[in-house]
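Worked example

This section walks through a single chain of length 455. The input is the sequence exactly as stored; nothing has been trimmed or padded.
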Amino acid sequence: MAVSAAALRLFPSATRFVVLCGPGNNGGDGYVAAAALAESGASLAVFAPGDVGKLKGDAARARATYAGEVHAIETYEPRTGDVVIDALFGAGLVRDLPKAVQEAISRVDDRCLPVIAVDLPSGIDGRSGAVRGASFTATHTVTFMAAKPGHLLLPGRTHCGSLEVFDIGIPDRLVRSRAGDLRINTPAVWQQHARGLDPATHKFKRGHLVVFSGPQTSTGAARLSAMAGLNAGAGLVTLASPPEALAANAAHLTAVMLKEIGKAGDLAEWLKDRRLGAFVLGPGFGVGKKAREFALMLCGRALVLDADAVTAFMERRTELFDRIAAEGGQVVMTPHEGEFARLFPEIAADTALSKIEKALAAAKLSHAVILYKGSDTVVAAPSGRAVVNANAPPWLATAGSGDVLTGIIGAHLAQGMPAFEAAAAAVWRHGEAGMRAGRGTTAETLVENIAPLPE
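Given that input, the structure is written out below as tokens.
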């Protein structure tokens, strides 16, 4: 009924509604929608693959609600003015679509017809978002009770169009039980850790964030992270710079402080100051022995490992993972697709796993929170908690955007947020900053558009 209502609401001038019904319960939904459309007086045609006489259970009972003729899907010839209701296969699809269905999708695509998908566009794997042979690209998708991973993970998300979640009366406790520790990333996940400012606070109580700079020719990324950390709420931020980069960094800094840290010994001495709340290592830092030494020294603290600091352990990851486990710090790693494949090659290569499952496997292996970047960023914890982010605009894909995200995570850690919540909140704020900055955003304007944490 929700599907038929959406069809009439969105396409009141449709010449004909074409309902494509599959062999299971998704097809059953299609037959009920067809019956409702017929009762409304709409022009209608129903097509299905295979023998509809072999339907069983709920699908057969739903088929009985529609009194009209059902045609073979092979005979469907799209017309101008058709609106297609795709009720062929839903979220449970785990195999490639039958040839006849793929050919029907191709015919609909050729005519650029609008499609309303029931549950998920046929061809999208509800668990991973993968395309199984072919898929409709829907104008609108009606799903029930809760969004599925395939609605949020790429490429599935790009096939869904606008998403409508309709309540069909399943108790929330059952939905949550089935979802386990997987959520869409919203303030509800982390808001309890986003503390308001105490009127009696001072800068050290708001958190001291340290960002490590790279050499003289690679200082910009660290400065972006530092400024993002300051704008995101850290009470003070220090850029730890090698001697050769001091002049370059000093020329660009005002509110961010500067400290000379050249060798591991310098860092060891500085770490005696327990007011240093959190650390960002990686943006523009360089790949090599120094990155590994610094990272291993910081595994007992609140730490974000990004970019070069992730790649530096490509061939020595066990050393890092063991140190994180032994030291018990609040560690967040932020790999993009390429960095993830370098650090977790066996997980990345497993095509049976969804992006969520890959992130969870990497978190368990590394003992760190994994922020697996992309348009469908996933944040996963070793405990099994995971969120999928959904508010990031496409124009965030710009140079330096990831450095800004890293700085926001660092600010949250410096303020005392747990690693998982710090990362999830940062991804959400990063997306909101992108929306505020608009389509022409650069990393610099992104920093200026970081809004306060919602309270």
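What to look for: The CA atoms of residues 224 and 238 lie 12 Å apart.
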